[in-house]
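explain this:

___
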Amino acid sequence: MQLGFVSAILPELDLEDLLAFADAEGFGCVELMCWPPGKADRRYAGVTHLDVTTLDAAGIQRVKNLVKKHALAISGLGYYPNPLHPDAEHRRRVIEHLKKVIDAAPKLDVKVVNTFVGRDPGKSVPENWPMFDEVWPAIVRHAEAAGVTLGIENCPMLFTDDEWPGGCNLATTPDIWRTMFAKIPSKHWGLNFDPSHLIWQHIDPARCLREFGSRVVHFHAKDTRIDRHKLDEVGIMGLGWHTPKIPGLGDVAWGPLFGALTDAGYRGPVCIEVEDRAYEGSLEDRKASLRQSKRFLERFVS
């Protein structure tokens, strides 16, 4: 396994400075964010360390030279929109950009593109499947043609009352994953596995890996802390009772988790994803969060 990080936490660094930091800190890889340039609509979105809309031959060579110079790998290209958004024009725009990210990956010798399935949060799971059937087979075929594997992250994207009860991402549980993979039985269609999202759903991540480990193509190392006092106040149907934390400061049982991950034969990237507000005071705080996370995870990832 290679230990790396998700670039979204360092948005003010350009690509060269980002890779230089990763190299200096002893990381082996970086997941590069590829949002379209412009204003973000939520935290950690809108980060563009690689602009695929302007990527030409010279730009491709520049990225390759920087990666080689710093002895790093690009673990994947990341773009996390809602391709099942209820607004048709919104769907069109994000799917068009997602395909550009997919097309850029093989030009940079990158084999994985990470994203969300998306969801209409106003509809139930069964009611979302018709749009899934309309949208996703064509995207997967596009990835197959490019020789790219899609890593679907399992974050529910449930943060506000407007997104209750299902959030903005369908692919959140083993039951849904089974249906998703049955509908599209492609080898270019896998999971970008993040254990933190399972913890607050009271799902055992290690158990998930025993069934779906062969489907994991990328791994996000993020923790979460369940606030038992807040949970007692609002219940599981309320919001705000779980908090993203850096690895080791939450409720993920990392030893059993990596035991299941290695048993599944996973040898891919493990990328730290920082969404911990306690470390967001400054750029130096966020860099420190990556260093601290790296020290913690090195006991599991050599």
Notes: The chain has ten helices and ten strands. The two ends are 7 Å apart (CA to CA). The chain has a mean pLDDT of 94.
